[in-house]
Amino acid sequence: MKYTIHGFQQEKLMEFGLDNDDALILAVIKEMYSNKKMEYQIIDGERFIWIDQGYLLEQIPIIGARSSLKRRLKKLDEMKILERRVLFIKDGVKGKFSYINITSKLDELSEYTPWLKMNQGLGKNEPRVGSKWPNKDTPIIDNNINISKDILSATSINQIINEWNSLGLQKIISVNAGTKRYKSLKARIKDYGLEKVLQAIKNVNESKFLKGENNRNWTISFDWLLNPNNFIKLLEGNYKDKENGGKSNGSFRQDFGQSKEPGYDYDYDEIINGL
User: Fold this and answer.
1) CATH of domain 4-123
2) 156-169 tens-digit pLDDT
């Protein structure tokens, strides 16, 4: 069986009595918690982020009803994998606001082996051969622990795949690590962020030309979109139809002439080759 799921060890998930939906919820919350832009409160010396359950459910609708999400969050809180606090006022507004902190128990589910686990069986005061015990104020630098920085979030990839497939063009099933497509996608997310990548894909819907209405029957591909030269033009709206606020970028023009439908006069070689 696949060793990990959503970045967590299946063996540990089953040991804790958790399933795929629990793992998905934890993966999304973990990703949100790592985002410094999230609104938070310091409670009892710990950082708690504000999570609106309605918004959370929008990110993972596969979970089902809101009652199912609430039930699972309550279970994860009772298991002390998450720590939940409810505040009744936020920004001067009265209400019921849920704040969540992730605990060290979450590390036990992760796909790397924590420091303490690596040193099981050693004497209390004996470091590994060739190693030193880390100072409590010094971050542990370990290839296994930091590997997540080099791996795209499964949640982010799924969002991008779903957005692309909604265009009704050539369908994408997966983006596999190590491939040219994966590296290109990772670079675009690093340069622009997830939301900008999603916006660039949305912009395809506003271009008849990119969706095949041209005299060569050429259609945009996912890999073409990820090309850095193409991506920035698409993000800036250069390929939008004129009625959608399109603008010329010097490599093509839209010619309406006497026709009711727009006629296009593009430098196809330049566009197709991503120049």
Assistant:
1) 1.10.10
2) 888 898 899 999 99
